Amino acid sequence: MDKTTSLKNENSGQKTIFITGIGTEVGKTVCSAILTKYFNAEYWKPVQSGDLDFSDSMKIQSWAGKNTVCHAETYRLKLAASPHHSAKEEGITINLNNFTLPETSAHLIVEGAGGLMVPLNDEDFIIDLIQKLNIPAALVVKNYLGCINHTLLSIKALEQRKISLKYIILNGNFPTDTERIILKNIQPQTTIVRIPHLEKITTENIETASKQLAIL
Ligand SMILES: Nc1ncnc2c1ncn2[C@@H]1O[C@H](COP(=O)(O)OP(=O)(O)OP(=O)(O)O)[C@@H](O)[C@H]1O
Ligand SMILES: C[C@H](N)[C@H](N)CCCCCC(=O)O
Ligand SMILES: [Mg+2]
């Protein structure tokens, strides 16, 4: 049986989900926009490194709707690089204790930077931030040669930390055998979410994709 299920069939309580990925540029922001729209959620990017004039929060407001509540980033760093490096360039050290989940009764989509082992400083990684926030994760996977290895390592890392993998998000199209081997390695409680490749990232296409999620 296809393990894909409608997200709305899940419990209807408040959801807070950390969107991570198997690396940088895999579509975390595109998928976050679709999920933000789908859940009518608020959005938070704890660390923005680079692109401050078109940040991920700004993309979410442009794609999911300008009324989408985006909570202020804890760190806004100029250099488009790994956060530990971007912070060092500005003479600061990212401190895990400075991150607190925004208070809200709405659903909340939290987007990381890059993948799980992206360093925030010399000791802490994105995976430590997820553990500190104590929220379930969604893993965005994009197809490229090497994605199987990156995906299975990410799943193992989450399992090792006992972080719940709530969603595996297959972003775009996958060869059958790539998809099969990835899905063979997830736990039954992980819901599969398929996001189509969009011709163009526009508000309309994001909205259409969010509507299609309900009929998965
Ligand atoms: N489903 C999709 N359809 C079409 N283009 C996509 C899709 N997902 C991602 N892209 C494109 O891939 C690129 C990277 O996407 P995105 O910015 O969402 O990645 P990211 O994982 O959030 O990156 P970062 O680590 O910088 O936050 C963008 O140019 C985006 O438009
Ligand atoms: C700058 C970029 N867009 C991301 N926000 C940060 C990606 C860090 C990747 C670090 C790494 O895995 O080597
Ligand atoms: Mg992003």
UniProtKB/TrEMBL annotation:
Q: Which residues form the active site?
A: K45
Its quaternary organisation is: Homodimer.
Pfam families according to UniProt? AAA_26
Describe its function.
Catalyzes a mechanistically unusual reaction, the ATP-dependent insertion of CO2 between the N7 and N8 nitrogen atoms of 7,8-diaminopelargonic acid (DAPA, also called 7,8-diammoniononanoate) to form a ureido ring.
Q: Where does ATP bind?
A: E25, V26, G27, K28, T29, V30, D56, E111, G112, A113, G114, P196, H197, L198
Sites where the protein binds substrate: S49
SUPFAM superfamilies under this entry? Answer: P-loop containing nucleoside triphosphate hydrolases (SSF52540)
Q: Which GO terms describe its biological process?
A: biotin biosynthetic process
Localized where?
A: Cytoplasm
**This chain belongs to which protein, by name?**
ATP-dependent dethiobiotin synthetase BioD
| Residues the record lists as binding Mg(2+) | T29, D56, E111
- One of the record's GO cellular component terms: cytosol
Q: What is the top-level taxon of the source organism?
A: Bacteria
Annotated PANTHER family:
ATP-DEPENDENT DETHIOBIOTIN SYNTHETASE BIOD 2, DETHIOBIOTIN SYNTHETASE
According to UniProt, this protein's pathway is:
Cofactor biosynthesis; biotin biosynthesis; biotin from 7,8-diaminononanoate: step 1/2
> Which GO terms fall under molecular function for this chain's record?
ATP binding; dethiobiotin synthase activity; magnesium ion binding
Co-factor(s): Mg(2+)
The record's catalysed reaction(s) read: (7R,8S)-7,8-diammoniononanoate + CO2 + ATP = (4R,5S)-dethiobiotin + ADP + phosphate + 3 H(+); (7R,8S)-8-amino-7-(carboxyamino)nonanoate + ATP = (4R,5S)-dethiobiotin + ADP + phosphate + H(+)
Name the Enzyme Commission number(s) assigned to this protein. Answer: 6.3.3.3
- Tagged with keyword Cytoplasm: yes
